[in-house]
Write a structure and sequence with these properties.
This protein has helices at residues 2-5, 9-36, 43-59, 64-78, 82-113, 119-144, 150-167, 177-192, 195-222, 229-243, 255-266, 271-302. It is mostly helical. The chain has one domain (2-305). Helix 5 packs antiparallel against helix 6 and helix 9 crosses helix 12. It is globular and about 55 Å long.
Length: 312
């Protein structure tokens, strides 16, 4: 508590500003993909839907529901078939993962070349990105050949049907696997052929990622911690990869902080400083996210969702 109370309020303001910029970049990345798919949406609507989906992370036991909610809301607002809306969300996630994996690989190379820490510790940390790369490869494979997952998709649709029916009672998804996969294939391939939109989306994802790194780096700098920006990149990357694990803990509260503290400690940051930085960065982001995303979730939960139809 003494360490946290020593933080200059200006640093908190900077962290809040970075988080808001991150929201903007996150929404812009998805917005570009929707345009690439040939649909139109007001950026403020895209921004609101993104915020509403983030709120789902804190009230549901898995981040998977965050993406499902974004697929549903995106379909409803833009008129996109559900399969194409899902393709836009998946491609958004793919581009984000590619961006932070590339920066993490470069950061690991820099840290190893400078002998900033024990090489064995760095190689141990590299195991987590390797698993993420494997998962990314599987995601890309099935995105290019979606027909191969048709046998299991009906089960997935049955699993998420209760969530969809919370949004629109008459929505029927049972037996729609082939249609969904056809829509997904069309939407995914249409988006990847739009090189300009893909590039803009990738750059926006890098902006979102950079804001996350800058938030932790700002608090470490304020605490006079001796951690380079490359160490911060690796730390945030490991935290994000663990955060993407489908564990039944709303918001991954506690898990993310532990991962960040552990990684920083491996790079010789005192545990008290590492834990304080992890907790403060999460306090700022979570307490900023909850009211803003909660308002967006209320809007789309009680106003937008009562209108129109869901294209499934």
């Amino acid at each position: 508590m003494n360490i946290l109370l020593s933080i200059n309020p200006l640093v908190i303001a900077v962290m809040v500003g970075l988080q808001l910029f991150g929201f903007g970049f996150y929404s812009a990345a998805w917005y570009q993909l929707i345009l690439a798919a040939g649909y139109r949406i007001h950026f403020r609507s895209c921004f609101g839907i993104a915020l509403a989906s983030i709120f789902a992370v804190y009230v549901m036991p898995s981040g998977v529901f965050m993406e499902v909610l974004r697929c549903v809301l995106g379909s409803k607002e833009t008129g996109m078939p559900f399969g194409e809306s899902t393709a836009s969300v998946v491609l958004h996630r793919i581009l984000y993962i590619v961006g932070f994996l590339a920066s993490t690989a470069f950061a690991l190379f820099v840290v190893l070349s400078r002998n900033a820490t024990d090489s064995m510790s760095v190689f141990a940390l590299a195991a987590i990105p390797i698993v993420t790369v494997a998962g990314l490869g599987v995601l890309l494979y099935f995105s290019w050949t979606p027909g191969k997952i048709s046998p299991v998709l009906d089960r997935v649709l049955k699993l998420i049907q209760p969530l969809i029916r919370l949004i629109q009672k008459e929505a029927i998804v049972v037996g729609k696997a082939d249609r969904f996969l056809s829509e997904y294939d069309v939407g995914f391939k249409r988006m990847v052929t739009s090189r300009r939109r893909m590039l803009l989306s990738f750059l926006a994802n890098l902006g979102d990622w950079s804001c996350s790194v800058a938030i932790l780096w700002a608090v470490l700098y304020a605490l006079n911690a001796n951690a380079s920006v490359w160490v911060v990149v690796i730390t945030v990357s490991i935290g994000r990869m663990i955060q993407m694990t489908p564990i039944a803990i709303p918001g991954m509260i506690g898990v993310y902080e532990t991962a960040v503290t552990t990684v920083l400690a491996l790079f010789a940051v005192p545990v008290s400083i590492a834990a304080s930085a992890a907790i403060l960065s999460r306090l700022v982001t979570v307490w900023l996210e909850l009211p803003i995303t909660g308002v967006a979730a209320y809007h789309y939960g009680f106003k937008l969702l009562g209108k129109g139809t869901l294209h499934v």
